[in-house]
Write a structure and sequence with these properties.
This protein has about 160 residues and is an alpha+beta fold. It has helices at about 10-25, 25-35, 110-130, 135-140, and strands spanning about 40-55, 55-70, 75-80, 90-95, 105. Helix 1 runs antiparallel to helix 3 (about 110-130).
């Protein structure tokens, strides 16, 4: 079996590696954010509403301060993940810090893991495709799953030689 890598495979593998580079460091916080109640519980105080216009819609989120219930953790200039609905400047709501830089979450679980999981899976597939391993696995299945040479039977003793 020959292992051939085309010029197109190298950028695919690099893109896949880049996606994994973005996703892997955030796996822990994203999984903690997905679990309702995980993380350090506290209060988020809304400070300023930041909005970004995209074609077809506007995305807004609140920036403010977080203080843990026991007072040992305070973070300023953090964003509240989970929507800007129902808040005004100075409003205090329950939140939790899951260890993600610059971000705290509402108490209900986050769905952020879905996008992270899809990006991670896509990165893995691109790495495998770009490295040629995906093609090797496919050709191994097509040829019966084995690339081992067949055993050659030895001639019987005393036979023609």
């Amino acid at each position: 079996m020959r292992w051939r890598v085309s010029a197109f495979d190298v950028p695919l593998a690099l893109l896949g590696a880049f996606l994994l580079y973005l996703v892997v460091p955030n796996v822990g916080p994203v999984l903690r954010a997905a679990r309702s109640g995980a993380g350090t519980r506290g209060t988020f105080t809304a400070g300023r509403l930041n909005c970004v216009r995209h074609p077809g819609h506007t995305a807004c989120n609140w920036q403010g301060a977080f203080r843990s219930d026991d007072g040992t953790l305070t973070r300023s200039q953090v964003f509240l993940y989970g929507g800007a609905d129902g808040l005004t400047a100075g409003t205090r709501i329950r939140a939790r810090d899951v260890g993600r830089s610059g971000q705290v979450y509402r108490p209900a679980g986050s769905h952020e893991w879905i996008l992270s999981g899809l990006l991670g899976l896509g990165g893995l597939v691109l790495c495998l495709k770009g490295s040629g391993l995906l093609g090797l696995a496919r050709s191994a299945r097509a040829s019966g799953g084995s690339h081992r040479p067949r055993a050659v039977q030895a001639a019987a003793p005393g036979g023609d030689g």
